[in-house]
């Protein structure tokens, strides 16, 4: 039995105070690629990580180039990846984890504890977590220095730790008030807070943040970014009658106009191309796929002609992925695969891209290649139940019924609320019983 005593107070080391120490105690020697990916989120300062360690492109590009963000349920799936590493490195049945100050942890470590307990129940072993209610030390002091809070907010937003980001944002802006003149640091932190609010379903609060920015500063970069965000809020996130594509198109037009007022020619070219991607999305919402394709072609043409030397731009990958979706909708399998091959080559450790290519490969009849992509996503990336569900379908087609059933069981473990997996699992169990 391995016993570990670890403090979970966020005041000690921020998000994943518990998870970071836990992984440092069990991860040594050469890392697997999935371990590298997980450490890039949980312990990005780890000595075990190097310049060429595996990580999603979203963690490898700078904040100004990051155009793809993690979903709201990303944290849960990341914690499941941590749990899998613990299973492989230490074994849940052989682990006794004594955790103190869990009440002072943030969402990251609370989610990790919940996942570890759920994994133990799934495996049929004893709960490995004991809460120490009488710790021999205090919980530490909260971070109040604005520069540190800015770093914590930016890091938490980038890694998809959105509730933690919101907490840091509220603490930061309780003492750091909007300057009269444009401040790029304040602007970046405010955009990060708005992004986190949007991710957790607080679209109305995010809209308020962007309206305040527009009211306070007459600056083209503020207008370009906030009007784009407002367009996406109206198109995707606001509820009920407030979801309005026409209002989204109007806001995006204001973003285009503001972009033309940017002084920096390269920034102007980049953001103009970026906004074309947004317009393509709105055309899809209007039901005009051909118009969406035209905007995507314009986006990619601008990147090739005006920003060809910036090959590391994440937006180039995102745009090719979006064009693949449109091409698939139009029945252009070869074109979609060409785009997805590019996307996966540039961002091999983002599971969603692997899953999207697997779907197209499967549709093209390349079943073994599709299975290989799903295997890679599951073995090396942070992924949710969809990858297991899709692999279960292919394994069932190949006659691998036991393996298919295992995938469905684990997929449901990852997300017990996924009705589609639950339905397919019940059918598979009935079939297995009938066969037996």
Q: What does the secondary structure layout of this molecule look like, with pairings?
A:
Elements: E1 2-7, H1 10-13, H2 17-26, H3 33-42, H4 74-89, E2 95-100, H5 107-123, E3 129-132, H6 146-159, H7 162-173, H8 184-199, H9 203-216, H10 220-237, H11 245-259, H12 265-286, H13 289-306, H14 314-329, H15 333-346, H16 351-363, H17 367-380, H18 385-397, H19 401-414, H20 419-435
Parallel strand pairs: 1-2, 2-3
Notable features of this structure?
mainly alpha; single chain; 3-stranded parallel beta sheet; TPR_rpt; TPR-like_helical_dom_sf; 436 residues
- Indicate the structural class: mainly alpha
Helical region count? 20
Strand arrangement within the widest β-sheet reads 1-2-3
Averaged pLDDT: 94
Identify the overall geometry: globular
* Rg measurement, Å: 23 Å
First-last Cα distance: 38 Å
In terms of quaternary structure, what is this?
A: single chain
Could you characterize what this model shows?
Keywords: Repeat, TPR repeat. This protein is globular. With 436 residues, it is mostly helical. The chain has helices at residues 10-13, 17-26, 33-42, 74-89, 107-123, 146-159, 162-173, 184-199, 203-216, 220-237, 245-259, 265-286, 289-306, 314-329, 333-346, 351-363, 367-380, 385-397, 401-414, 419-435, and strands at residues 2-7, 95-100, 129-132. The model has no long low-confidence stretch (mean pLDDT 94). The longest helix is centred in the middle third of the chain and has 22 residues, at 265-286. It is built from 20 helices and three strands. Among the domains are: 2-132, no CATH class; 143-262, Serine Threonine Protein Phosphatase 5, Tetratricopeptide repeat (Alpha Horseshoe), CATH 1.25.40. A three-stranded parallel beta sheet has the order 1-2-3.
């Amino acid at each position: 039995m391995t016993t570990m005593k670890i403090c979970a107070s966020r005041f000690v080391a921020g998000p994943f105070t518990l998870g970071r120490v836990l992984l440092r105690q069990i991860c040594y020697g050469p890392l697997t690629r999935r371990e590298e990916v997980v450490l890039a989120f949980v312990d990005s300062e780890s000595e075990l990580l190097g310049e060429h360690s595996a990580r999603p492109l979203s963690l490898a590009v700078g904040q100004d180039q990051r155009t793809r963000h993690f979903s709201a349920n990303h944290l849960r799936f990341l914690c499941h990846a941590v749990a899998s590493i613990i299973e492989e490195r230490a074994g849940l049945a052989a682990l006794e984890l004594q955790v103190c100050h869990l009440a002072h942890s943030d969402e990251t470590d609370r989610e990790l504890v919940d996942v570890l307990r759920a994994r133990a129940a799934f495996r049929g072993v004893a709960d490995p977590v004991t809460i120490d209610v009488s710790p021999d030390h205090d919980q530490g002091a909260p971070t109040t220095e604005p520069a540190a809070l800015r770093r914590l907010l930016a890091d938490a937003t980038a890694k998809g730790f959105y509730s933690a980001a919101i907490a840091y944002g509220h603490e930061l802006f309780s003492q750091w008030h909007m300057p009269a003149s444009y401040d790029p640091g304040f602007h970046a932190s405010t955009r990060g807070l708005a992004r986190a609010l949007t991710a957790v379903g607080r679209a109305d609060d995010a809209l308020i943040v962007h309206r305040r920015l527009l009211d306070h500063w007459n600056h083209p970069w503020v207008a370009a970014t906030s009007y784009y965000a407002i367009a996406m809020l109206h198109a995707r996130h606001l509820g009920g009658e407030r979801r309005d594509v026409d209002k989204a198109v109007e806001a995006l037009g204001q973003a285009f106009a503001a972009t033309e007022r940017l002084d920096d020619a390269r920034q102007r070219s980049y953001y103009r191309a970026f906004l074309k991607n947004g317009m393509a999305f709105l055309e899809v919402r209007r039901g005009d796929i051909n118009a969406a394709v035209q905007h995507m072609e314009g986006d990619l043409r601008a990147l090739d002609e005006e920003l060809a030397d910036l090959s590391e731009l994440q937006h180039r990958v995102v745009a090719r992925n979006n064009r693949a979706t449109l091409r698939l909708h139009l029945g252009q399998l070869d074109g979609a695969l060409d785009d997805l091959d590019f996307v996966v080559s540039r961002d091999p450790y983002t599971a969603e891209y692997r899953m999207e290519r697997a779907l197209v490969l499967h549709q093209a009849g390349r079943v073994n290649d599709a299975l290989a992509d799903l295997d890679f996503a599951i073995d090396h990336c942070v992924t949710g139940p969809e990858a297991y569900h899709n692999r279960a379908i292919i394994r069932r087609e190949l006659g691998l019924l036991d393996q298919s059933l295992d995938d469905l069981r684990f997929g449901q473990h990852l997300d017990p609320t996924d009705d589609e997996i639950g339905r397919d699992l019940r059918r598979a169990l009935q079939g297995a019983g009938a066969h037996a």
